[in-house]
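FIELD: query
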Amino acid sequence: MGKKKTLPILFGLLMIFSAFSGCFGDDFLQSPDKKGIPGGLTLACLSSDEYTSMVVEIDYESGYMPEQSSVDLLKTRLQEVCDKPNGIDVLLTETNFEHSGSWTADDVREKSWEHKSNDPQTSSTLYWQAIFPSGTYSDGGVLGVAVDASTVAIFKETVEDAEGPIFNRPSAEEIENSVLVHEFGHLLGLVNLVYKSPVDHEDKDHPGHSNNEDSVMYWAVESADIGTIITGQLPDEFDNDDLNDLSGILSGEIPVWDQLWVP
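FIELD: result
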């Protein structure tokens, strides 16, 4: 995969990645109701031994439908790493979550499971879910959160607010593209959520994230100069270290833990 250079970006823009500091939910290390932790279905996704197909269920409230480019990009990124010979499909459903106010990780988990079309492990199909609710996350500035082994939420209101009017800042659509892939990267276990990489590419100040600005799993460090505008492109793909980690997990070279399914 060719590398594209991603330059440092305006401080205000980098705040869109505040999602990546709180994107697991406060209790992600727990295994609520045996729903697993982010990365708990990594092997189930990477391998075709049990699950030969995959469905990404996207439930969104009216007015919060994800961009088609985000849906297409997510499907492409999953196809690049998950062995699903019978295909990966995306199911979009308009949904009323009947929730008011801000969202916590527990809220996301509760409402998403109420609206899942199937359990994550259903016959030979693996189901992962993203919800696009109205409202914002309880930890201000968070754009996305992974709450268990199969579930993420994207807060489109905050995504759109992050776009801002300043010239050369990425669009809300570009932000959504990166954030959606990033959160599903956590469902894949990246970075070091359910394994320990042989390569030192985890940001020591932001556990669970890459230290490479060209990876979609990167934690973008805030600029000290709030007024500086430096153009650049948000990362939207896994880098070689991410891909090698996933390859090593699948081959068995890298031990993995907290799995809800093992070959």
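FIELD: remark
Strands lie at 53-60, 88-94, 121-122, 125-132, 144-146, 151-154.
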